[in-house]
Amino acid sequence: MQTPGRTPATRRIKVVIADDHTMFRQGLGEMLTTDEDIEVIGEAKNGEEALSLASRLRPDVLLLDIEMPVMDAYGVMENLRDNLSPPKVVIVTMFENAKLVREFFDLGASGYLSKSASLKELVSAVHTAYETPADQITPAASRGSLEETNGASEKGDLSERELEILLLAARGLSNRQAAANLHLAEATIKRHLANIYAKLGVGSRSEASRKALSEGWISTHDLTRES
User: Fold this and answer.
1) Distance (Å, rounded) from C-alpha 81 to C-alpha 76?
2) pLDDT, tens digit, for every residue of 207-219?
């Protein structure tokens, strides 16, 4: 697969994928192999493995999930600063959140991609991160589709994990089902929901879901799309 309007790379772009969901991680790898200029050279299921692979395999681009066991993306980014030749990092996450975009670009990320992105957007993000000099990378250039609107872009100041749990709740999953989906304890889900209600000023998951829909933090497409 060739991206329209670009000159083929002189060598294949080496990519490592870090995500704790095996099926999603493998799916990304399969999608990337459709581009002849990209080679997936490793996969990590947590942040510690991602750092180890980055040091040992020296990839050009690291696709990095935010929420992972052992070490999250924040920890990975902090530790990559000690690497003399760190890879370009593209954050891959479930939600588009302007606040998170700014945080990770401040930490040195080269791109930010929603997990609902298309194959074309995924491949483009990898090429853009690889081909763009670090001093020319900006959130606007690397995300494009993210609309920074007042209020709604901040997602009610919910964390990445809280947004993920709110979406599952809005889809009608029980606490037990959400816990299984995210590989968390049911008590952790309950605690996150309590924090969500407090932040949004609501008293139930139905009220929280309605507010998230009305504010545009989640869409009807999000509700019907498979996890």
Assistant:
1) 9
2) 998 888 887 777 7
